[in-house]
Specification:
Four Helix Bundle (Hemerythrin (Met), subunit A); mainly alpha; elongated
Amino acid sequence: MDWNLIGQKLESLRRCLRRVKEKCPKDVDALSEDYDAQDILALNLTRAVQLCVDIGAHLIAGTQLSPPDTMGQTFDILMEAGIINADLAGRMKKAVGFRNLAIHNYDAINWAIVYAIARYRLTDFEDFAKAIVLASPEEI
């Protein structure tokens, strides 16, 4: 297992979350009118989800566990391995659902949902990062 690679991905995740926090407008109406903020938030939130999936896939690849068939299943396997709890697995699977919508149907994004994620759900990613650090043989 390459814990240095996981550490690099966790640092990228931190940067994405910091960018979302810095650029999130004061309310959803402001976000609905600010195309730059929309791009910054959507891009960094989808990157954050992808980084979590990549970290999970890397952890799974270093075990005897079967690889996931879907991105969401990555978090089920991490839960079964005792790396994350069921609640966090569910929250991360919802994040994958957002990522899929943002990537495949960008023109139909509900900016109220993006705003809510940016304001109230970044802790899901932070909780994931903490769980990964706790699973490491040494602090990353």
